[in-house]
Prior knowledge:
Layout: H1 4-29, H2 41-73, H3 81-90, H4 97-111, H5 119-138
Amino acid sequence: MIDCDRLLLEHKKRLKKALEHLKYSYEKVKSLPTSPQKINEQQLETWESFVMRFARLADIFIIQYLRTFILSKDPAFDGFVRDILDAAEKIHLIESADQWMGIRRLRNIISHEYKDADLEKHFKEIRDVTPLVIHETEKV
């Protein structure tokens, strides 16, 4: 049997720490250019750090925290990401499963493969959605 209360506490601690890191990086990228032609090496390193912190927070929140929270209420739950997000929306842990599916899609794109030509678009999308991610994860 899974000790959901203990796991939730662990996930919450990791989530809070990841949230602080993301906020720090977000403040740094807010004023940076997004165009690869206008980004120097130092700025690219800052962007890459921000992107990885975004991905890490999304993983901790969706796959670990939300899933464990839902399991604590329904031990028979056996769903995938969409199921986790639908259940989380239903019990008001998140505002919109669709928004979080978009966040998950972004996380997958940036964590795996992306074309340099799409870099500017992805940087903008991630930067634009980060306030929502911060707002929703701060409620935990």
